[in-house]
Amino acid sequence: MNITSENTVSNLQLTTSVKSLILLVHSFYDHRSAAVVHWIQKMFSRSMHQRAKKVSSVIYSSFLSSEVQTKSVVR
After folding, report:
1. How far apart are CA 75 and CA 70, in angstroms?
2. Which domain of life is it from (predicted)?
3. How far apart are alpha carbons 10 and 18 in whole angstroms?
4. Quick one: which of 17, 33, 54, 60 is 20 to 30 A from 1 by CA?
5. Is the dihedral of CA 55, 57, 62, 63 positive or negative?
6. Could you read off the pLDDT of 31-56 as tens digits, one per residue?
7. What CA–CA distances, in Å, run from 63 to 14, 21, 73?
8. How far apart are CA 18 and CA 29, in angstroms?
């Protein structure tokens, strides 16, 4: 009886330490993954901003060239 109760206590201590370790690892990885997701979002938004600038400059330059063409046609 005494041996099994000691065994149960040691098993409980082991499971609580394993659970706390798992929680620690989970919180660490959650923190890391949140940081990684934030970094990816930042990089994506930066690349989207650059892409939008390129697209707008292309649209603007094509607009300017069409303006020049229509002016030359009108003359």
Report:
1. 9
2. Eukaryota
3. 12
4. 17
5. positive
6. 777 777 777 778 777 777 777 777 77
7. 71, 62, 15
8. 16
CA dist., res. 66 & res. 45, Å (int): 31
Predicted confidence at residue 68, as pLDDT, reads 66
Amino acid occupying residue 25:
V
Structure tokens at 6: 């000691």
How far is Cα 5 from Cα 12, in angstroms, rounded to an integer? 10
Burial of 26 (C-beta count, 10 Å sphere; 0-12/13-18/19+): exposed
Q: Cα–chain-centroid distance for residue 35?
A: 7
Digit-coded pLDDT (tens) for 6-35: 667 777 777 777 788 777 777 777 777 777
